[in-house]
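Quick one - inputs below.
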Amino acid sequence: MSALGLYNYWIFIFLMMCGFYLLLSARNLVKKIVGLNLFQTSVFVFYISTGKVTGGAVPIFTEGVAVYSNPLPHVLILTAIVVGVAGTALGLALTLRIKDTYGTVEEDEIDAKDPLT
Amino acid sequence: MVQFLDVILLTFLAVVAFAAVRMRDLFGIAMLLGVFSFLSASLFVVLDAADVAMTEAAVGAGVSTILVLSTLAATGKTVRPRSGRWKLPLFVTVMVGAALAYGTLDMPRYGDPSAPIQVHPIAKHYIEVSPQESGIPNMVTTLLAFYRGFDTLGETGVVFTAGIGVLALIGRRRRQDGTAAEALGPDVVAERHIIVRVVGKMMIPLVLLFACYVQAHGDYGPGGGFQAGVIFASGLMIYMLLFGIDAAERLVPPSVLQRLIALGLLIYGGIGVVNILQGGHFLDYRTLSSDAAHGIHYGVLGIELGVGITVTAVITTIIFTFTGYLRRGSATQQEA
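Output:
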């Protein structure tokens, strides 16, 4: 049963850290948003993975099935995915406006052009 | 077998994420992100989350890839190579990762039936009581629309707000630029990619029909408003990709979409108000019918419809707005 043990979690942490690294190091705003997306998806798979029961079924009531995976994480993540893509769209829209105003999406070039910095 | 699939998919996910971090070509990264989403959707199926997998497949592999690609068309697809500024982020990332990995040692093992999340009384209630109480076999739907109705109302509100936000940021119609709009005109795909066009054309009605099925059947099978909304929007997106934004906006005018964004949320909130007027609590659907289970069923179907309308309208609006903005952008560049 626990042959996998903690392997799942370690992969999720790796994915999350990939996203985190992109957020910290990338200067291109589109790449930053990609990092945010990786981070977000890693949280999704983590949540869903906690709801899984060995031998469990999809949580749709069926005669003769006794063990179901927990539906609560499914509900939380289902809505979060749609909210996530809406948020990503908002971020990309901001990026487009920044490109319009500054002519670039590279962070340091924006800083150089910004009169406030 | 399931564990084997699980390990394979997880490993692929890790490889794709690592490749995305290393790559400098943003077009490649956008593709990898689509692959990443598709792999995670497959993983959701393995992990028994059919509803979630459906949403992720439509959103991740379809909608968000198109959004990133649209943005790239305006911002350019290569990241300027630059030295420095990788040591500190790498150090911070490794330290945080190590701390999190240390934390996992106390986590319940994968699939453990005695994990806290599985033995908590609320989990038992959701799994054992909800199908009897509401007569709806799909526990995810009951949970989403009834037990956590407030939460879902909030999420729909967030989707609504994001749609309005995108419109406010890049949705301004600049009619005076509309003349040089042929860059993405309908003939581009038609002439160059006849196979894509013919196959796509056959797919659109099936995608839209499937979306309606998912919407209407969400209480018995995997599905519901969120899934149907993103699938329907994907269908409209295919239409836009094949026939151009002008044809798509003739098919679904933006003014109609903007009204639908509000209408969905109004249906949702309106059902809650009806509940209050009938003497119940906000979003307690048992007042909708003399039989409590029937009332819940009506309520769930009603708010799923509201969610479906808002999500379809918001995602479609976002895609159309991005494409429209892009076209205007290329028009201004040509003038300059």
